[in-house]
Amino acid sequence: MADKPSMGTWVVDRFGKAVTGMVDEHPRRAARLLHAGFAAKRFQTRHLPEARQLPSGRMGARIALESVTGALDHPQGAVLTSMFMPNELFLALGLRPLIAEALAEFTTGAWAEEGFVRAAEQGGVPETYCSFHKALIGYAMAGSLEPPRLIANCSVACDANNITFKWLADKLGSPHAYIDVPYKYSEDACSYVADQLRELARGLEQTYGRTLDERVLSEHVARSQETLEALVRSLPLRRRRFMHNDMGLEMQQALDAHIALGTPDTLGMARQQLKDLPGAEEYRGLSLVWMHTAPFFSASLQQLVDCNQRAQIAVSDMCFDQVSLDGWRLEDGVWRRDESVPAWAHTADEPWEAMAERLIKNVFNGPGERRVERVRRIAEVAGADGAVCFCHWGCKETMGVSQLAKRELEAAGIPTLVLDGDCVQRSNNTEGQSSTRMGAFLEMLEARRGEMR
């Protein structure tokens, strides 16, 4: 017999149905109700945080809610953008980036995605389109999205990313800025992207009536580089430590490492991790590296990996796509850095080039082999027993790289499970199949560990 839903689940379900029921005839009312729901969740993260999470986890949840809800609170000072943009530029101008993926994820967290997905599909968006982008387009098609003063995106990391924002700009009548990112890093490529970012800054100043202080921008970039360095230093501390996390928190912290990178809060979260992890309880269960997004609402998968003594996500590649591992080596079980090798070719003294370098070197940019190699390295240092590659609905890039990842990771001794599903639209998930396959995978990892002892 199925377990009865909790009171909290029942309330969220009713809330989501109420929003969905308004989308067709009262789209702005639906948006306001959703905004109120996000604000209520923000209040919880401020005053009633999850007791089971580590302090750094509670900070991560709060930063994500503050970022998304803050942008909705101040639409005239918001920029609609993509997850992979160097958001220090917006933050240094006192603007609030509204990340497409974050809005879709939060809408799903409120169980309200179905009405917006339906609006997009009824407007002609293919059913197979990425559901993160489909939900955002649904906001615009339904009339729930207030036209932003500016839309900005870059070519990283997918085809949908390159189509959606251009369409939204045409639909909403908003100015659109686009950053073209070369696949391979060179100093010429870096200068090319840096010049585009400078041009974007001029457009932002004109649109929002603000003046950029490059010293403030450099301060944001300096915090970004320190934050990413702290994340790298946290990798070996995750080995056999109880992370006290869940799929939802992993996605929130991935958002923080993009939407709020460069802020004192995100740097504080990364520093807090370095304090939390050495003192966390020893973990005897299975540690996983998670590749791509996670269906944080899946009840059956929650039972297997959320704050669980049997298995946990020790590290996810969405949090480590931008870090530099140059000079780092795992030698005799010790994670060491060769200080003679610079982490970055450009420091915060050259903020435009520093942001451009990080954008080009992001492992979601360029050939899939770079991304797989990043997963292999973080799995090795964090002591992962296995890897899960989650092929999100409509994400052709992850689907295309999944078999390469499985082959290369398993050749490196990291058993890998490829799961298909959807991180936004619940109706596209096969709960039973996913939990059965995940359960069998965990049993295999347990048996393998027993054989290796």
TrEMBL record:
Q: Which GO terms describe its molecular function?
A: hydro-lyase activity
InterPro entries linked to this entry: FldB/FldC_alpha/beta
Which domain of life, per UniProt?
Bacteria
Residues annotated as coiled-coil are none
What the record says about family reads:
Belongs to the FldB/FldC dehydratase alpha/beta subunit family.
Q: What is this protein called?
A: 2-hydroxyacyl-CoA dehydratase,D-component
Species annotation = Parolsenella catena
